[in-house]
Amino acid sequence: MEINNISFFPWEERPKGCNDVMWRYSKNPIIGRYDIPNSNSIFNSAVVPFKAGYAGVFRSDNKAVQMNLYVGFSKNGTDWEINPEPIKMKPGNTNMLDSEYKYDPRVTFIEDRYWLTWCNGYHGPTIGIAYTFDFVDFYQCENAFLPFNRNGVLFPEKINNKYAMLSRPSDNGHTPFGDVFISFSPDMKYWGEHRCVMKVAPFEKSAWQCTKIGAGTVPFRTEQGWLMFYHGVINTCRGYRYSMGAAILDLENPEKVLYRTQPYLLAPNEIYELTGDVPNVVFPCAAIVKNNKVTVYYGAADTVVALAFGYLNEIIEFVMNNSL
Amino acid sequence: MEINNISFFPWEERPKGCNDVMWRYSKNPIIGRYDIPNSNSIFNSAVVPFKAGYAGVFRSDNKAVQMNLYVGFSKNGTDWEINPEPIKMKPGNTNMLDSEYKYDPRVTFIEDRYWLTWCNGYHGPTIGIAYTFDFVDFYQCENAFLPFNRNGVLFPEKINNKYAMLSRPSDNGHTPFGDVFISFSPDMKYWGEHRCVMKVAPFEKSAWQCTKIGAGTVPFRTEQGWLMFYHGVINTCRGYRYSMGAAILDLENPEKVLYRTQPYLLAPNEIYELTGDVPNVVFPCAAIVKNNKVTVYYGAADTVVALAFGYLNEIIEFVMNNSL
Amino acid sequence: MEINNISFFPWEERPKGCNDVMWRYSKNPIIGRYDIPNSNSIFNSAVVPFKAGYAGVFRSDNKAVQMNLYVGFSKNGTDWEINPEPIKMKPGNTNMLDSEYKYDPRVTFIEDRYWLTWCNGYHGPTIGIAYTFDFVDFYQCENAFLPFNRNGVLFPEKINNKYAMLSRPSDNGHTPFGDVFISFSPDMKYWGEHRCVMKVAPFEKSAWQCTKIGAGTVPFRTEQGWLMFYHGVINTCRGYRYSMGAAILDLENPEKVLYRTQPYLLAPNEIYELTGDVPNVVFPCAAIVKNNKVTVYYGAADTVVALAFGYLNEIIEFVMNNSL
Amino acid sequence: MEINNISFFPWEERPKGCNDVMWRYSKNPIIGRYDIPNSNSIFNSAVVPFKAGYAGVFRSDNKAVQMNLYVGFSKNGTDWEINPEPIKMKPGNTNMLDSEYKYDPRVTFIEDRYWLTWCNGYHGPTIGIAYTFDFVDFYQCENAFLPFNRNGVLFPEKINNKYAMLSRPSDNGHTPFGDVFISFSPDMKYWGEHRCVMKVAPFEKSAWQCTKIGAGTVPFRTEQGWLMFYHGVINTCRGYRYSMGAAILDLENPEKVLYRTQPYLLAPNEIYELTGDVPNVVFPCAAIVKNNKVTVYYGAADTVVALAFGYLNEIIEFVMNNSL
Amino acid sequence: MEINNISFFPWEERPKGCNDVMWRYSKNPIIGRYDIPNSNSIFNSAVVPFKAGYAGVFRSDNKAVQMNLYVGFSKNGTDWEINPEPIKMKPGNTNMLDSEYKYDPRVTFIEDRYWLTWCNGYHGPTIGIAYTFDFVDFYQCENAFLPFNRNGVLFPEKINNKYAMLSRPSDNGHTPFGDVFISFSPDMKYWGEHRCVMKVAPFEKSAWQCTKIGAGTVPFRTEQGWLMFYHGVINTCRGYRYSMGAAILDLENPEKVLYRTQPYLLAPNEIYELTGDVPNVVFPCAAIVKNNKVTVYYGAADTVVALAFGYLNEIIEFVMNNSL
Amino acid sequence: MEINNISFFPWEERPKGCNDVMWRYSKNPIIGRYDIPNSNSIFNSAVVPFKAGYAGVFRSDNKAVQMNLYVGFSKNGTDWEINPEPIKMKPGNTNMLDSEYKYDPRVTFIEDRYWLTWCNGYHGPTIGIAYTFDFVDFYQCENAFLPFNRNGVLFPEKINNKYAMLSRPSDNGHTPFGDVFISFSPDMKYWGEHRCVMKVAPFEKSAWQCTKIGAGTVPFRTEQGWLMFYHGVINTCRGYRYSMGAAILDLENPEKVLYRTQPYLLAPNEIYELTGDVPNVVFPCAAIVKNNKVTVYYGAADTVVALAFGYLNEIIEFVMNNSL
């Protein structure tokens, strides 16, 4: 999401000797697993510019390992005040606020308000939707889909006058498959026109994304198309490994993938990515952009929140030149 | 579906000595597996009264075991002329007619036309929708849901001014789980307000429906509520066994189950149910009703079409008195 | 169990041309699946001589597919009157009568009463125990073991002054493994001294019993040892197939197998064994003996009860000459 | 295999009203499961013309369900005398005659002798090879491959001066996958030049062969290419179903598939195919040809041997016109 | 186990800034994986006060990864001398000393001797029992149960004049399920009166203990009931994660759970818990108590032994206030 | 492979206090995961003495996680120059150079050239073969076997005038089983005379190698027999753990195992073995020997290359004295 001018932008230059398109923040993780009282972990969280700083919706599992969403605010994007009480929803276009668990939020601003989507437990995982104007009051809407679904990510604009959402049909467990679809809605209540957007890659072409893929950050409008960071998963003999790539979708027909990274952009390598509740996970949930600088918020090892950086033009060039 | 007066109604009285609520047609199966040229099987098919007789949409797998839908007509409901060419869809509210396979149709009349739903292959199974006025031209609409879904069954009326559909979220394989949900649509294009309707039964209470359940016949309005025949599945050490039960749903809030059979109404016992491409399957897809008589069309052993009969008042009484 | 002199003994001579050690009753099945009102199936049942005839405890699943035990009486061992009400237990040496389900009974007379064992659902399958003097009042005792266990079969005498029971440790599902153990009890309340008795056979030596085996009939004292019919299972690409063999255990150290059939004695071949709720199942639960004649009661296809016959001396000779 | 002129040829004309390319023998099965003393089943067996009649190698599982090979002879191809003693191998080009089990034989004549291949148990299934001049003495050769492999079928001629064998790499269990490969040998001892010949079909195009396929009968030279009947498998919710198709391979480059049936030629439908030790299996192992008549020997339900017939020109035409 | 007055008690105060109920020893692990010659790992071990210091029974896997039990002694509870020879059992109330492997010991003093229980390999895992007076001679008793069972933990007193043992019925592999049961014995030879004590928690309420749970430390008598630390397991997409909670059982009816932690008390976070032979394991096996101080010995990452501390009153208060 | 005299030999003495037969290089890993541009990992690689130094063939997965082979050269065996372009094969005794992926190389010199074997993707993993004289031009030969196979390792001499190769039949996934076989070839084109060499160990005897084993380094001729380092795998509840052992095979009949380590020689313990793309992997691929010193190159955590050292006489003595 493009940052307004007055905000401080969280950023660090590419380290000497680094030739990668994207690099990590030297002070990662920016949020520790115990930074909320009684928390077990804080990760896979969404950040947007808000007022003169930033607001965020954070996934935190408490020490009972109950998954819930929390609001936080920050002036600089790296130091956060997180409300220790989970978000309590109010009725939006529905009275059904049932939720067995909430996790993996994404946030985007559309027209006049911030929209929050997340994985919502209703007889299995599906996509929950809510909106807020102020990150204080959240109004819940109808779940977008029937279970089982995860990784619902809204586009930051209506497309052809309809809301558009990426998502990944799933199963009720660890889901050993998964492709990205798009759906449309005139009103954030009823959804349809479901199309397959992108599927897992062949093992021999791009094994890091051969088991499942899922939308990650809210797509960002560029001249070349919607830029979206996504995660890809390979199933090793020790379980799943999550890495980050990027795709560029057609601006008007976003079900059309124009480019998509064959190499990953970021894969687990640091100790906070290699150890934790779920080792070897890099899971992007939000990206902010300012003056050609891109900062990605990603969950590491299902335990903490970390940052990665890159230059927008370089990323786009890389995606276009290294497309699957 | 209630039959008009002039139609012949397929029916046979309860056999002597039979105390069951429902019983089989003595001439079952009414449609053999090879009754379409090049067919491997004809089963799980839908029938509605049409003009002075009946029209049907039939699932037939050809000898390449490709699954498709075929139209048939009958004067008496038991003898059928089936068009050997599969239905070819025309654009309804969509131009996307992609379909890897089509199976398990249901048909109902709403307002001014016949609506057809089926399991439609689009990157996995989902619910296809089409309408026809004449069983000659079929107009395909947007798939109701993202994959993976099966057993989409429309209510025969709008409820609260919206179309209503039962369905069963699934996976991409043989799906070892499955509960029935309801969804609503203002326009047969966008769907939402998803609610869980009924779940599998506990093993110790009603094992025949402890693995998965799915909507079967189009719900039929009665004073006591929507009467629907459904299938339940138990996973034996030789695979799945499908039986038939019935539920009564609240007329105004059909997500509310008023009654639901703890005992099954029909379970595999005849040789055409116990042997075939998938032994031990009884799978109801359509029910027609006239003057308190109910005739259910069900697929047997994933191979042939068969009939079962019962008196409406007795069935309702049984469901109410033997509710889970 | 040895039959007293006045009883009619169910028997049919070996058919002409048959060279098998054991053969089937020409009027099989002797009990049909619907022979109890509301029953779905009657199978895997136990029979003992009682008064001038026979008493039996029958497994019947009702049409809700709830598994329970029923009492029946017969004068000739083939025609049965079965009480349509399931057995209701009274407290024996326990007040805990909890049972989620009851199935696969065996019955034996020890000292002064008839002991009934069965697979009892208590947070998973385990072995239930009860006794009766008259097949009217049944007194339930403590479950013999922790879950998960099935096929608990008592010896008809105390051995070294202790009750002895064969059983098969299992899991909570269809259990793809299983060996036979023996346990001892001074009082039918506490059990111990668990020993492994016999294990599955190597695939290349006796594939019909390579997946799991389980005690079948109550062991019968012979000069050569305890003769017991048991079931063996092979896992085919269409699921389990159950066949019947026999073993001879040492009279004083019954954990010691003296002989055990490498070939089966009976395997599914008749239509009532090849089709039904679980095709390809032959499951022996009781054997009665009189004047060198042996009659085995076995469940067929998890659906009906059938009989097989043989001469005791021939069976023993066969087991000894064809031992694994 | 082409039949010499003096032989009686097993044949029955197409039944009235039958429009299928291939049809069954009205007296099927020609060999019953108990036709060898102590046999449990006789199926998946190979037949070749021999002297003035026919010789065969039969798979029979005995009542211990040990799998072995037996020799038989017949004057007319339908009535068989089978030697009740399994084949005992003598050393051919190897002294290693180890075999945990032997099953699914195929036989072909090359140059001066009959070659037998079968699934040979050596630390898992692999392809055993032996030759005989007289069906009395069999000389075993080195196993063709490392485990795990099944369905090894030799071509009836050397191709480019090398022996050629089709086979299907497998696993050690029920193998839920399987494609057909070809390998070559200069000497029946060392094998190489492995090439993939044909793979399973996409589910939506030809579901009966979407799980695995395997070579069936010895390829028969025709003008259009090598005609081979093969089996295809679909995994239903009740396990595998085996059907029969045919392929035509290039005469000089037999790794090249010219045509291959999209529809099956024969799928389980008769009671001896639908019930038995493994229901719903049609498994072709041998074909004999004379004057445009083709007779296929196939195993039914892993229990018995049956025959199917067709006209060679019609079969070839069908394969060419209905190719996947 | 309450410590006598003269012993040194292993203890470290709560670190500054720590608000957790329990905290780790700063010098963890106290025993390294190679601290026994030829050992691969030392973990999941039991400690009791003994004479003026402590005795322990240690699980160590040697470099062949054979699991066995070893005796050790310590004056202060943190520095240990471990006998490099595994314990060799002598006959107690049984002569059957067969054991394929021994692991996960617990020790408690009852009346006049120390009782050792462990997971004993006898045709699968079950609960081994032995006693010792001096930690030199160990006398083995009959296995408590049939396989498959793990985590057998004795109460430190007879209850209603019977020995009482917690255990967890299991399967023969990694066991993806598991609830805690209690059994009673008059004589440490025969066991019965099996009752279910506590089951896994619902995923949405307490996911860290939603897959399986098992008794950990010997229950400690408090006014509020038996305090027991136990482990809970969640199955992540990278395998199991073991955490520690606590329960309070009714003093007289210990099958009754009075309180049980919804949040965990300790979950893997330190590098010696997050890496090792089995990462992400915290597995409590023993607790010692003195003057309101509690020290828990737990295995970390199936590799080393570590300590955690807490105040008894605070732990009890926490369990009561945060009960599931 | 024995080193010529002029080469520098990579070596480090046994650390003080270390009593293990083999020990690690203090500067491990010698090759980092990013040491090739765009690499994700470099591991499981083969090294041989070449000219005055060493040549190596390296497995590197690039950032698309495509697996390929790369050539490198080193003067001292620890500092490497790796060509960033993968090896491009030329036709050797085949024109079929198809390869979906290449990984896990081994290299050995036989007679006049260096032979390279690797896991080659051709419709599944099989063993690729190539030769080179100069590590510049590589000539590919026919794949040795049908899929599915891995860990093909050539002997450094012909045995009985034939090439000999160890390999491990596998499946197409993570292969939860695996034994080592040997095959022979007169010409590096056709292979046969397959024999089972060694199988997994019983869990209770040597659990680190109870799930699967695979040949590791090229066997090295010693007086006692062929010394080969191999890997063994145990399946933990967090996935596979790979350790290293050694075996001594008979010089003339290498299918005969003379000795084989019951304890492992090296198992994952260092942070570069415990964390990475696949934690807990020690995977030996090459060994060089000079003057009684042995240096093993092994892949660590499927991420980097590391070294281990030992004295030849000590290793042989250890294998002989600690044989399974």
TrEMBL record, chains A, B, C, D, E, F:
SUPFAM superfamilies: Arabinanase/levansucrase/invertase. Keywords: Glycosyltransferase, Transferase. InterPro entries: Glyco_hydro_beta-prop_sf, Mannoside_phosphorylase. The keyword Glycosyltransferase applies. GO terms for molecular function: glycosyltransferase activity. Belongs to the glycosyl hydrolase 130 family. This is Beta-1,4-mannooligosaccharide/beta-1,4-mannosyl-N-acetylglucosamine phosphorylase.
